[in-house]
Amino acid sequence: MPDVEIRKIATSLEEIHHEGGPRAEKPYRRAAIVAVIKNPYAGQYHADIQPFMEDLKPLGLMMAQRLVEMLGGDPSVVEGYGKGAIIGLGGEIEHGALWHAPGGYAMREVLGGSKAIVPSTKKVGGPGTRLDVPVTHTEASYVRSHFDSIEVGLNDAPRANEMAVVLVMTTGARVHNRAGGLAAEDIKGEDGLR
Fold first, then answer.
1. pLDDT tens digits, residue range 151-167?
2. Among 77, 85, 118, 185, which one is most buried in terms of CB atoms within 10 A?
3. Sign (positive/negative) of CA torsion 60, 66, 70, 73?
4. In the chain, what are the domain boundaries?
5. Rounded distance, CA 103 to CA 193, Å?
6. pLDDT < 50 positions in the chain
7. CATH superfamily to which 6-186 belongs
8. Which superkingdom is the protein from (predicted)?
9. C-alpha to C-alpha distances, 43 to 3, 49, 90, 92, nearest whole angstrom
């Protein structure tokens, strides 16, 4: 399989100071990175698609490192993450599943071995398709204060023979979280859930 062919990369960074209530002492930061790449399997069915996962690993690492840089360069400030993919109309949903391991393991590696599963979503769509990428805590999936989603999409992507792969990271709990449940400071960190 040849190297991954990137057409474009887009990033976004949000700083949320309040949601109508008191100002946060420190803004909640949410970062997203989208890489629009050629889908080598677009246009026809291929039985063996797993080799592309290996090709995607360096892209995942580069994207995860860029997210940490966007959030200040210190991996320890990252408390939430997620991933996703939008597959162009010439592809199939299964092509997006190839991003699960390269995207998820890249973020875990860059963050020093986070335990929680990296939540994910994927869909097939054309240029302008939007995707809500789920976010959970990096160490325990049951921490409700960190449940979030980041909407991504580009007006000119993905084209039929492309896919847009996405990674997102956040720096903490939602600004005015008060839905209860397991608190981040009470994480045991044994199983990635609690």
1. 999 999 999 999 999 99
2. 85
3. positive
4. 6-186
5. 20
6. 1
7. BB2672 (3.30.1330.110)
8. Bacteria
9. 19, 13, 5, 9
